[in-house]
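Researcher: I'd like a candidate sequence for this fold, 272 residues long. If you have to choose between options at a position, lean toward the conservative one.
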């Protein structure tokens, strides 16, 4: 979509043109729920000739919306190295269910997903880890778009001759410093007792999450409108500003230990 704003003399028309631009939902259910800020969404078709190991995404525009993240998450493995496979699976199951119950009462969540998060509960854990429940994993339909969650699911359960492992995340609301969140998650992990030879192993550092990034679209529109009108105000009344890209999805980037920057990859230029 291409939107041209005629001069800055009529600011009412300028604002109306921007805010009448429709909000584009990212999914059929009205948009994504909670996403990991460090997750990437890459279209295989658009990057088919790009070496993803060296690919650097373009820098975000200057105008966007900075806010504190909603939660912090940390990857964990629940692993058992008992000798018998059935015993290992039972021990991992028992520790997972205990962790689910403790998380619910202590204000934490167990989640899966590389970019978009799904809470793991007693009602759905067998769907999230079918092999752990002794079920055959259903094969997903082929999709041309790159799906980070698909790769995550492929390694969410691992079983070999010596150990059985499931991989998921612990999530806590971000209501203070990142160190506070780290200590809270560490305390929760230690509170879950071992079952047999099973244990929880934390992996990596913390990542931030944001709930439904598309809900901030109107605020981003407002800031782009203000920035465009300010830029064109330095020129004569015969100049206008052309804004391109307002129909694109809301993207995000971590900008501090606790903050995220939400933006639309727009561009604008000033012209007569």
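Model: Candidate sequence:
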């Amino acid at each position: 979509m291409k939107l041209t704003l005629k001069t800055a003399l009529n600011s009412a028309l300028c604002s109306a043109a921007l805010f009448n631009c429709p909000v584009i939902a990212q999914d059929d259910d009205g948009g994504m729920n909670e996403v990991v800020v460090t997750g990437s969404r890459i279209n295989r078709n658009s990057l088919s000739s790009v070496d993803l190991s060296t690919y650097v995404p373009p820098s975000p525009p200057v105008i966007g919306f900075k806010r504190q993240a909603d939660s912090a998450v940390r990857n964990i493995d629940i692993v058992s190295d008992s000798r018998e496979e059935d015993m290992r699976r039972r021990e991992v199951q028992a520790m997972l269910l205990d962790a689910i119950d403790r998380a619910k009462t202590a204000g934490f969540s167990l989640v899966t997903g590389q970019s978009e998060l799904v809470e793991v509960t007693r009602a759905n854990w067998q769907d999230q880890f079918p092999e752990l429940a002794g079920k055959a994993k259903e094969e997903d339909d082929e999709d041309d778009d790159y799906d980070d969650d698909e790769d995550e699911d492929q390694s969410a359960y691992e079983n070999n001759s010596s150990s059985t492992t499931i991989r998921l995340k612990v999530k806590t609301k971000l209501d203070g410093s990142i160190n506070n969140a780290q200590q809270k998650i560490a305390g929760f992990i230690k509170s879950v007792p071992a079952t047999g030879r099973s244990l929880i192993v934390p992996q990596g550092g913390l990542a931030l999450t944001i709930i439904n990034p598309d809900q901030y679209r109107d605020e981003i529109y407002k800031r782009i409108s203000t920035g465009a009108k300010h830029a064109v105000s330095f020129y004569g009344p015969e100049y206008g500003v052309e804004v391109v890209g307002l129909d694109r999805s809301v993207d995000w980037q971590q900008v501090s230990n606790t903050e995220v920057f939400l933006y639309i990859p727009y561009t604008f230029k000033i012209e007569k």
